[in-house]
Amino acid sequence: MISLVVFLLGFFGTIIPLTIFFPNYWLIFAWFPIGYIVGFILFAIFICGTLFYFNKTPNNKSKYRDVFSRHAVWFAANFALFVRPKIYGLENIPLSGNLVLYGNHRSELDVVPLLSYIKRPLAMSPKSSLLKVWFLKAWFEFSKSMVVYRADDRKTLRELVKAIDYVKNGHAIVLFPEGTTKNHQSEEINQSRLGAYKVAIKAEADIICFSILYKKAKRIWPMPRRLSILFSKTIPFESIKNLTTVEIDEIIRSKINAGIEKLKN
Fold it and tell me: Is 84-264 assigned to CATH 3.40.1130.10?
């Protein structure tokens, strides 16, 4: 894993010289956090450089592109964000074919374990305000994500058209029908934005529902953030192609909510 190698080069490349030139055993405890910071700086430079390269060569379809994405997010999740998920039903996700994943939205970190463990090209559906951060903008461009412009339906429609094309070309995409993490009265999904289902319909894609449940416990950094994710079995496109978006919404919400109940129990 190149991301880990880059981090370790920065980490040991810092603490070893410091230990040699300042041979005070008590100071070793100070070298470790310094090495950790330097390692992450090198890791960030490596990620930014790789994103820049791939965004300048958008037709590059090498396997390294997808492996880089998954391993980089996994590394950041475990060593920076301290996200520790329990994954159930990962075997239900096909490695090829048109696919859209729908799930409940509990946190801005929901996408992190999805990007870390799903072993196929995966796009997100971020809100436009996140594009103000250069790194995130570059990542969304790299992953061919569908940007949601809540104040501009015309722009969102153009993004939706692009997302349909991505799915038809083998890129799975994650969509949150709720559209927000705010105003939750319960863990379950009570209402959805029906437009989210147009991607699956227009792309003639199979659907997988996933349920996310965070462990409710007081957390002090860097204690790990505990959550569970359950992937349901595939809903074939043939079974929903003649249904309305309202009917599809009922099926998907029931599956997601049933998954949440399973995780609770």
Answer: yes
